[in-house]
Design goal:
The chain is of the alpha+beta class. The chain has two domains: 14-145, Gcn5-related N-acetyltransferase (GNAT) (Aminopeptidase, 3-Layer(aba) Sandwich), CATH 3.40.630; 153-282, Aminopeptidase (3-Layer(aba) Sandwich), CATH 3.40.630. It has eight helices and twelve strands. A twelve-stranded mixed sheet has the order 1-2-3-4-5-12-6-11-10-9-8-7, sandwiched between helices. Helix 7 links the parallel strand 10 and strand 11. The longest helix has 18 residues, at 23-40. It is globular. It starts with 13 loop residues before the first strand and ends with a strand.
């Protein structure tokens, strides 16, 4: 198997592949992220809740420790069997030493060993160094996503009393998978049953949307006591154009604010104009953009 490689020698310090993340590691990652964002701006898509729930039997997080502590981090995020996302950072004072290359090579080797065929390196559009690294290994932008934050009141809409949202149950898993597969074009038929259930119910916040007796869509809310993010929002094609999406998203946003969330966010493909218009009409504004650079792990 031919993998992209940094070509750098070993920088000062040591690489550590963690299995699960102890609280002290999470704290160090938070501090490193804050230091990077203070210099670079933008966002690092580190999926804090995912990091908190890492399994202890698999290496998904690669850390570089220098003389002053943690100076580099790269995480593997597996949302599809054949594809992973990678997001990481290096402290501004420790850059241009090959640290990110070491982290990247270790993560790619781990992913390839699992049979993954493609990795997506997630880079904020403000982070030119990350984009330059991606281009240096021959990666190309597969897609880009705007991140959006609720900042305004939603536009008026016609309320349909037949539409309701409830928590997903085990019996809903096949529908959720089918709906996500339809919306986001992943091969549902190739996913094993246990993987399907994990995908459909990755967090307790997976919900299904009903209209009368019909299941019409799904959405997932990932929240803590301060912030909430909306993921996997999809309405089946035959039920689109009826205002269901606007009603559901506006209602969710209203409820989350009422619960005390200081930030409600979501992401949308830069080429999905209809979804972007919907989210804007629900009171969300674009706050930044991430590019997803594709790296093939094929032989």
């Amino acid at each position: 198997m031919t993998l992209p490689s940094s070509g750098h020698g070993s920088p000062p310090g040591r690489l550590f592949a963690a299995k699960g993340l102890a609280p002290e590691y999470l704290e160090s990652i938070d501090e490193l992220a804050a230091a990077c964002i203070a210099v670079d701006g933008g966002r690092l898509k580190l999926e804090r809740r995912v990091l908190q729930e890492r399994a202890a039997d698999q290496s998904n997080d690669f850390m570089w420790f220098g003389p002053t502590g943690l100076v580099g981090f790269l995480g593997i995020y597996g949302f599809r069997p054949e594809q992973v996302e990678l997001c990481g950072m290096v402290h501004p004072s420790a850059r241009r030493q090959g640290i990110f290359s070491q982290l990247f090579d270790a993560a790619i080797e781990e992913a390839a060993g699992r049979g993954v065929t493609e990795a997506l390196l997630v880079v904020d559009r403000l982070h030119e160094a990350g984009a330059a690294f991606a281009r240096s290994i021959g990666a190309t932008v597969e897609h880009s996503e705007h991140r959006m934050v609720l900042r305004r009141e939603p536009a008026p809409f016609v309320f349909d009393p037949a539409v309701r949202v409830r928590r997903a149950e085990a019996a809903d898993v096949p529908f959720v998978i089918a709906c996500l597969a339809e919306a986001f074009a992943f091969p549902a038929a190739q996913i094993a049953s246990e993987e399907a259930e994990a995908l459909a119910r990755r967090f307790p916040g997976t919900l299904v949307i009903e209209r009368g007796q019909d299941l019409v869509g799904t959405v997932r809310v990932d929240s803590d006591d301060k912030e909430a993010d909306v993921y996997g929002f999809a309405v089946m094609p035959q039920f689109q154009g009826r205002g269901i999406g606007r009603q559901v998203l506006s209602g969710l946003a209203r409820d989350l604010v009422a619960e005390g969330m200081r930030r409600v966010g979501l992401e949308v493909s830069c080429t999905n104009d209809s979804a972007l218009r919907l989210y804007l009409s629900c009171g969300f504004d674009v706050t930044g953009t991430e590019d997803y650079f594709a790296v093939s792990l094929g032989s």
